[in-house]
Amino acid sequence: MTIISLLIDSPVSPMTSLLPLVFVIAVTAAKQGYEDILRYRTDNVVNSSPVTVIRDGKEAIIKSQDVIPGELIVVERDCDVPCDLVLLRSTDPHGKFFITTANLDGESNLKTLMVPRDLPTVDLPEMHKLGIIECESPTTDLYSFNGKIELKGGEGRVLPLSTENVLLRGSRVKNTECVIGCAVYTGMISKLQLNSRLTRNKNASSETYINRFLIVILVALIAIVTLLYFLKRYNELFVIPKLTYLGDATDSYSVKQFLQDYLSFLILFNYLIPISLYVTIELQRVIGSWFMEWDLELYENETDQPCVVNTSNLNEELGQINILFSDKTGTLTKNEMNFQQCSINGNKFLFKKTRLEDEETKALLDINKFSANQRVFFQALSICHTVQVASGSLEQADAGTAKREPVTAIKSGPPEMYSISDITEESHNASQQSELNVGHTIDNSVSAHPNGVNSTIISSDVNPLLVSDDGYGVERRKRPVVIKRSPNFARSNRMNNGAASDLNINQTDPNTVTNGVEPTTNFRPISLQFRRSTSEKDLQQSWEAPSGQAPGHRRAHSYGAPNAYLTNPVTASTPPAGVLFRSPSTTSRESYAAPTFTRQPTILVRAESQRRKNEIRDFIFTLDYQASSPDEKALVEACANLGMVYTGDDDETLRVRIVPPHMDYKRPFAKPREETFQRLHVLEFTSDRKRMSVIVRDTDGKKWIYTKGAESYVFPLCANSSAELVTKTDAHISDFARLGLRTLAIARRLISEEEYQDFLVELAQANSSLENRKQLSEECYAKIESNLDLLGATAVEDALQDDVADTLVSLQAAGIKIWVLTGDKVETALNIALSCGHIPPDAKKYFIMECKNREEMLLHLNALDREIIFGIGQECALLIDGKSLGVALAEASSEFRDVAVKCTAVLCCRLSPLQKSEVVSLIKSSNENYNTASIGDGANDVSMIQEAHVGIGIMGREGRQAARCADFAFAKFCMLKRLLLVHGHYHSVRLSLLVLYFFYKNIVFMGIMFLFQFHTLFSSSSVYDSLFLTLYNVIYTSLPILFIAISEKPYTEEKLMRTPQLYKKNTDNKQLHWPYFLMWVLFAIYHSVIIFYFAFCFFYYNNVLLNYGQTVAFSCFGTLLMWTVVVVVNLKLWLESMYLSFWYIFTIIISILGFVVTTVIYNVINLDYDTDIYWAYNNLLASLPVWLWIIVTCVACLVPDYTIRMLQRALNIKSFSIFPGKQRKLKMREKFESTYL
């Protein structure tokens, strides 16, 4: 339009089109450039990451973007692999190494890879001359690789390469210090990149509606221009010739004149198209994204991670989601398994850090009190696995143990301190234990005192809570707490050799203090109903009783002071005359009057127990267990906490340290007892067998098979167990399952030598078979896995993300269907889906597994469709594996899509990254136009994140690939609830109001121009000055709508979070449907008619409006119209808004004052910009009738709005907005809880 206005005799100044256009382009370019810079920075982090390569036999550091095929890459432990590598060397002596592939397939379990067999070992300078690697063209299959190495240097051999020799980009090296590999696939041809979709520009679904409205407005523009042109031609032909005072009409009419007339109308009415709408939307989106990033509810304090918005164009799309695709591992779960409960020989136990609690008796049991069945059960757990101990971690743990000095030793630094809060649980548990052991007796080891006093020897270790900060002495101070109820612990009767050698007892002096002595008696705790600790002032520094007081009735000494638990050894076998030695008390009164000294100090024992827990925890952490299954790792760690510490395998020799709960201050691992088992075979877990077994030989030469797996597959094998035991264990497993715990059944049996030899022969024959090798091997496994003895069952919790269940339930209540796409096994995924609430507990589950062709798939889909149709109201969940899904996507995609979207929940397992994106793409292709969102945390989720309408990344432990590629990113899954239900709702409402209001105000603006043409013989002249045309969308009406577009809140945040059903009111862009648009158009037409004809009549019947009695000029008419339009459209927005604040009213006032100020300045300057309005506005301001006319006109325009809204309120109809009543105050708050029509 700017160019056209320069070429013809334009009715308005070309600047009216040029300035807004330049402004719009500049703002849009700045916004897009800002987001591109952010993407460049995140991409540069990956492309510039350092990679160690070997060149000319030396290590060099290059950028990852510079890696080319053939480079020798060095990857260290816990580092990500920069490209696809063929392994050539590992620091492991057997050529093995371990990786995690969470960024590829979502599994964080360890996987074992190996250096190609028979690959010669050469020095680094000669490694690049080792041979030539040939491999297949890169494919998307993560589990397939075919290649070979042709060795040079006279070897002349060819070594085959398979998937176990290839390290893929995105995986992470674990449990191996360093590996060296040759790059084969780099950059865009790596398997990870091939499984990622190309990044595409995403557009919000609201833009579809905006484009439809624009098309309607454009058609209306063409229609108006054409209509006015023909009416002008009609007037020129039939009306103007009759007006003789205008002179003779010209007969000639050229093409130039046609263009002049038609294009003049086009220039005049092009303001009907809201060009500034786009720049306002861009600003609204950018500022809205800042608010999301500043939201403290989306901020993770622990990691200092706020919400990140990478694509602000999709803000309002957060409020339109119909189907959410979610990853499982790291998204719904933390992938942290915790051992919770177990069933042993028909009895249920709860795991309490370092002990077991009997569910019935509440007795706490440590490893010293385990029965034979309990020991065998945990022995099975400690050896029936494939867990690895990270190389060097055992030596590191042992070294840390050796460096730790006993607490009794003099230290140069502050000792390890324990707070009272740390031992509260220990105190509570111990108090319960003491109640259960009332009947226990105390076996005292009595020594003879020279004076004939019988005394029990008790250790005199210094209480660590009373060691002074300098470590050189004992600080005597009053205890800050009084413990009324104390547990009863006794020290072990086993004397450490080192401690015994330091034993130094003065046999003559009864006041001699015994240091470093461990108890020689196994004391058992008894009930102690009440015990009070006193200060050190109550202590006596001698064993003798104070004068005048019987020794048997001494006041209770403080167990907080050092000498409170120091005793003197005696040698006499009988007490002297006059000395009364009391037996342990059992009543509260007796305990207070005459307490026994055969117990350990309360606070000392608690500190000891807490110290032991910390030591075991630190030792296990240092061991760094690496498991192929997180369940196995949790079970092994639980055994270690209980005292059976698996310390690794050495050439298939499993080592388990038995660590009893020592009650001294020596390291509990100082001299442990170690058991060894020779692992003979591992019968691997498969999805068909649903169990795994190990065959071991103990130190006595006996061979045992230990089995663990799903109870439905293990129970039938337990023929040697009683039906009662199986029934009890099955009931316990059902209880565990109701708690959402993952369960495994445990069994074992003794294998005879003859049976074992038969097994070896049959297994060798099965492995040598060329056909049905897998089937024959499993038959061999099943034969030896028979007649087992059931030991019990385990219950492990897969820790869910914080508030994940509440989030999923809320999203489902909001009408969002949730699909979980994971690379995990079906059993694992199903367990998590049930525990987190993804699949409702009463939903009917339908499985589609191992489908091989279209016919089988259609059979399943038809059956499922019938179940859904006839089971009206019954929730249905679909579970499908990767193989079946591949058939569905390739051969029955539309049928699968149409049936799957009817299900309440869908769970897809064993999917590759590309399959995930294909599922999202399939749902997007539906005729229902579903709006989709994908959320994940790993590189394997990038493809589906990029494919969905909205991609959401979680900044997880496995890296930030997903977060970098996502449109929105945050730290926790639970934040998704607020992102969708609050921010999504708000942005959807705000954009709808912004779009509709822009069309409204431009129709009002141009509607007056249209009516004006009928009263000027269609002269194509403008009723407004060019200044008004330029500033109308830039200054006069832009600020209030921009402010309300970033602050509108139809509901409070708390209500949106509490009532997720409100989310449905905005989905499918309901507020941008045609009824809303037509309603705003009708209001715009009404307002333009009222404003124009009120002003026309006002001037027509009396144009003497000025104070000095003169008639008004034409410029005053246009200025008055413009003034009224600015006031009405701003007040109209005020009526439509539902969230009022001082700042919002301030923007309205500023906009109206902006018109007043700019017009006053413009009309006092004699500037011939377009029309002459010199002093016109000043004259209007001084006229009282003008002010009265403006008030009347505004009321006439806005009364219908008020009336309609009052009727809607009276009828309790939810409307687009509600006119504010008396209760509306000038503060930031919710006005009326109402939604749009």
TrEMBL record:
Its cofactor is Mg(2+). Its main location: membrane. Residues 492-521, 534-560 are annotated as: Disordered. One of its GO terms (cellular component) is membrane. Residues 49-170 form the P-type ATPase A domain. It is an enzyme of class 7 (translocase). Mg(2+) binds at D327, T329, D937, D941. It is found in: Endomembrane system; Membrane. The chain crosses the membrane at residues 12-30, 209-231, 262-281, 994-1014, 1026-1046, 1074-1101, 1107-1131, 1143-1165, 1185-1204. ATP binds at D327, K328, T329, E632, F685, K708, R742, T822, G823, D824, R910, K916, N940, D941. It is a multi-pass membrane protein. Keywords: ATP-binding, Magnesium, Membrane, Metal-binding, Nucleotide-binding, Translocase, Transmembrane, Transmembrane helix. NCBIfam families: ATPase-Plipid, ATPase_P-type. Belongs to the cation transport ATPase (P-type) (TC 3.A.3) family. Type IV subfamily. This is Phospholipid-transporting ATPase. It comes from Drosophila melanogaster (Fruit fly). The lineage of its organism: Eukaryota, Metazoa, Ecdysozoa, Arthropoda, Hexapoda.
